[in-house]
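Input (structure):
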């Protein structure tokens, strides 16, 4: 009994520690295939992804009964569309993603993928269909090549190299002492936030799931790194249904649809130019970020 109890208890601990952070979803996937408290139904089918259309239909959710976090969220992501979610801290952006992975079930409403309610399909098939680019990718004490191969363990070297190229990591790798064989991770070369995120993108490109979820890093990036990520993300989004939690509005400019989330509700939706013309919430956020950029540039100028 004790032998069973300890590992289960430990997994429960790992699960609780990690559930708090979307950044760790990738790590959690490798440790734990299903979420405690969320059960597959006895007749759970395998998710059949034909197009990759995602629909949130009047979704409500509360972590605790006395505080509703999502208050009737509805939106559709068409196949191969790129949809960006923006909004203030605490608006519920990460919560939307946690529901899509079925770490929790909505308290009302439903989420479908190609018409199948995600509660009716097996969790393993659901998660196999979704690729995650977390804010802070976990790197193992192995070479860059092996770290990227983690996206699909049986990938051939040429496939891994193609993913590295498409994730715009090639120039970075070329400058390393042993190229793709350079060791990274805790005991190897430390990568910057932007480089790590591109490793995560390369993994996701290799896995090639029909649906891609991207949690943009909040940390500031230099503009070269930012351009690299934007280019890599465009590669991903050109073929897969892509949902992005965007912190920098530069990432969302070319999104097909931008959803502005405010205190658990979608308050605006449209393209960048449509939302600027509306002159509402999004236009205000945009103005603010432009001003921040200008003052950062002025500070840099003054420092020279
Ligand atoms: P950020 O941009 O800061 O990441 P967000 O828009 O992603 O914010 P969420 O992480 O979805 O916001 O959180 C929405 C609300 O839900 C917050 O008020 C948060 O405190 C609360 N919340 C998040 N996770 C939990 C949890 N595990 N238990 C209880 N409340 C939670």
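Output (sequence):
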């Amino acid at each position: 009994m004790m032998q069973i109890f300890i590992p289960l208890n430990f997994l429960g601990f790992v699960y609780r520690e990690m559930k708090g952070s979307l950044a760790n979803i990738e790590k959690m996937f490798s440790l734990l295939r299903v979420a405690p408290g969320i059960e597959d139904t006895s007749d759970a089918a395998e998710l059949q992804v034909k197009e990759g259309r995602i629909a949130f239909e009047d979704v409500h959710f509360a972590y605790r009964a006395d505080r509703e976090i999502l208050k009737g969220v509805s939106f559709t992501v068409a196949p191969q569309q790129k949809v960006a979610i923006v909004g203030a801290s605490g608006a519920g952006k990460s919560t939307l993603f946690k529901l899509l992975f079925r770490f929790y079930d909505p308290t009302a409403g439903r989420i479908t993928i190609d018409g199948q309610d995600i509660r009716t399909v097996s969790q393993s098939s659901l998660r196999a269909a979704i690729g995650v680019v977390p804010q802070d990718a976990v790197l193992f004490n192995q070479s860059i090549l092996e770290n990227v191969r983690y996206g699909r363990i049986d990938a051939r070297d040429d496939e891994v190299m193609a993913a590295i190229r498409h994730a715009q990591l090639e120039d970075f790798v070329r400058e390393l002492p042993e190229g793709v064989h350079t060791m990274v991770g805790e005991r190897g070369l430390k990568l910057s936030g932007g480089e790590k995120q591109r490793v995560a993108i390369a993994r996701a490109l290799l896995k090639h799931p029909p649906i891609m979820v991207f949690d943009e890093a909040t940390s500031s990036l230099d503009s070269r790194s930012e351009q690299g990520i934007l280019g890599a993300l465009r590669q991903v989004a050109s073929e897969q249904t892509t949902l992005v939690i965007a912190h920098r509005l530069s990432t969302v400019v070319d999104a097909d649809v931008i959803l502005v989330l405010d205190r658990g509700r979608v308050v605006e939706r449209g393209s960048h130019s449509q939302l600027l013309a509306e002159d509402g919430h999004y236009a205000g956020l945009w103005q603010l970020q432009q001003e921040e950029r200008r003052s950062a540039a002025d500070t840099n100028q003054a420092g020279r």
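Notes: Residues 1-23, 30-34 have pLDDT under 50 and may be disordered. The beta strands are 54-64, 67-77, 82-86, 108-113, 116-117, 130-133, 211-215, 241-245, 257-262, 265-270.
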